[in-house]
Amino acid sequence: MKKNAFTLIELLVVIAIIAILAAILFPVFAQAKMAAKKTQSLSNLKNIGTAVQIYIADYDDMYPLSSVQVTSIGPTSTTSNRFVPTPAKIAVDLGVEPIRVNAANAFVSNSIQPYIKNIDIFSDPVAIRHDGGTFSMLGGLTPPSTAKDITYTYNGLLHAYSSTSVNSVSNTVLYWPGMGKRSLIAGGYASPWLNCTQTNPVCVYVPTKSTCSFSVNGESSSYTSNSSGRGFEMFSGVMTYTYADSHAKARRIGVNQTGDQDPRTDPFARYNGIFVANRSWDQFFCHPYLFRPDIDHQTWEPRIIF
């Protein structure tokens, strides 16, 4: 009896068609997956922005704190440029002294928790876990590996700042992935942060001026461009933010470009591949260009690239 079957050529044609279809569809699926992750990132940041707005309503229209004095670490030590255990209960569970626990509780990532009650939204879906090691805020101890990852960083120039004094709430960054794809285990962080030698009297942002000093509260600030090798390529050249009015937005950055970037929209001045090479500062090297709450985000002022 004669049996019907595919010839070798027919099979090869079918395989070739499947391969062509896969080559066409796989990038589409990848783009759809990336778009879904970007949407999740925007949702996370929108929820954080909303929580901050509720906090502001409860605390006399003042933004949350990012610089809290920790006397036991040093006479003028603050949480500025420190990884802060988030949630603060980690410090309690590790038996850390009360003054550090109190400082951690006052830090923004913990103080807005009553309005969020979900640590997971601080982790970006494309971020990569980074073991930050020991925390000075934990007395040199390491947070447990079971703790949640923290990706988004607070604009510390808004520390204790009046919400009614922000010049352009729709353009002033509130939270953003300030360490790129680096996601710290339980590490709340502010970037940029105000340089505060002490928080009593309260350290608050001082607009840029030619006489700004690192030793005077709030006259200067700093921020990181360290992603621990993870890079700042979040969503195909796009980074997500939430702003001082709580809206969330995806904005293209110059990570795949060369030359100077627009300091009114891009957090960094120049890029070297996916890694940040330079940052933008105001003309007197007082504050990072983009994050200042007193500017209108329209004027292109003189700046320094460092």
Please specify the SSE layout and strand pairing.
Elements: H1 8-58, E1 84-85, H2 89-93, H3 98-106, H4 108-111, E2 128-130, E3 149-150, E4 153-154, E5 173-176, E6 182-185, E7 187-188, E8 193-194, E9 221-222, E10 238-243, E11 248-252, E12 268-272, E13 275-282, E14 303-305
Parallel strand pairs: 2-6
Antiparallel strand pairs: 1-7, 3-6, 4-5, 5-10, 8-9, 10-11, 12-13, 13-14
Question: What percentage of amino acids are in beta strands?
Answer: 15-25%
Radius of gyration: 23 Å
- Report the strand count: 14
N-to-C order of helices and strands: HEHHHEEEEEEEEEEEEE
The largest beta-sheet arranges its strands as 4-5-10-11
Label the structural class: alpha+beta
Number of helices, where a helix is a run of at least 4 consecutive DSSP H or I residues: 4
Large-scale geometry: globular
The description of the largest β-sheet is: 4 strands, antiparallel
Overall pLDDT: 89
Give the count of structural domains: 1
Task: State the separation between the terminal residues, measured CA to CA.
Answer: 82 Å
